[in-house]
Amino acid sequence: MVESIIGIRGKDFVLLAQDANTTKYGILNMKFDTNRLFKLSEHCAMLASGEPGDVVQFAEYVGKNIQLYKMINGIELSPYACANFTRHEMANSLRSRNSYAANLIIGGFTTNDADQQKAQLFSIDYLGAMISANVVAHGFCQFFALGVGDKLWRENMTLEDGLHMLQVIVNELGKRMAAYPHCVFVRVINKDGIQVLDNMYPEKIHVQKPEEAELLTSADMMDIHS
Amino acid sequence: MGDDIMGYNGGVALAMKGKECVAIACDKRYGVQNRTIATNFTKIFEYGPHCYVALCGLATDVQTVAERLKFRTNLYELREQRKLKPNVLYNMLTNLLYEKRFGPYFVFALVIGLDPKTGQTFLYDSDNIGAISDNVNLATVGTASEYIFGLGELFFKPDMTPDELFEATSQSLLNGFDRDSASGWGAVVYVIEKDKVTVRELKARQD
Predict the structure, then answer these.
(1) For chain A, domain boundaries
(2) A5 CB-side CA count, 13 A
(3) Which SUPFAM superfamilies does the record cross-reference, listed alphabetically (chain A) (predicted)?
């Protein structure tokens, strides 16, 4: 819940952002360069958050199966196909001995000419419900990301617009989340594949120094020595 | 809220019969308890030129049942070399749901259909373990179903024309789900007649 994963869909790209902290016992920040992105194919990747063991197990299982498909059949699965496969596995595991408490975001750029919408973004929750949307997020950051997305998302956004929106979200997270995201890893997926962009940091908050007047108590105002 | 699995994601669907036409409508909200995540989650699925199913309940099961039913109907069409009839589709669905009698899917279903030659209309309503309700005139499923039933009974008239049917269905749905916080955010109405299917998106309160 404390980990943030966010996806933003633009005109011909998908932005995938994740915070890079691993926390333990609610208070310790153990690692500040955690990778939550799992590559599914050349133009498709998955962000996963939730129960630590389940996240890695499920993400690697799905990733390897998608790569196996490519080896056997020689073609890359579109993000829509990857997402449906992942949803199916998640829904199957729900009523079995081993269910995975992992929330996922799958984003990618389809190389299939028949698809009209090239940039595809999907969100799958831990129960296996899949939706496709322009802004998706999981965890506590959902409260911030979806609200900012409702206000700032527009059709045919450019990469600069997407990054600007992401910076607004990250600033809000830094200001209002107790679990401060020291660093956010940002990747973009477009026709050239998956590229890693510069890290994003929340804006430094400037708080006004408390005034000297506040330090004055009524006892100080009584002159007892005269 | 709390432990209520059927209300975890919210959603509602309604179906009504007219004279040689049937209408089915649903809302578009996808939420998790009191949070709305997306507003493009329609709950109506097509299984034949005049056969539609609406599924309401836990979103993951809505998608799973829709997939599993599609698998069975595809196989049926391949083997039989003909398209499905509504009562066959309904029987397949009740069978699929009853198979999980002691570990059920959390979806309630509506099946509607039309025979293009005779104009006979079909409308079936199912609970999550496949309990049959005979060819009824009006049925609703979902978190706002009680509210919509009341309005549906009010607006329903026997032998409505497609336009009257569309009005009655839309008004019952819109005014009914406005009373429920777990449904809404837009609506889609399908009106199925002998020669065409009209899909309309309704302008609803965006909350």
Answers:
(1) 5-200
(2) 26
(3) N-terminal nucleophile aminohydrolases (Ntn hydrolases)
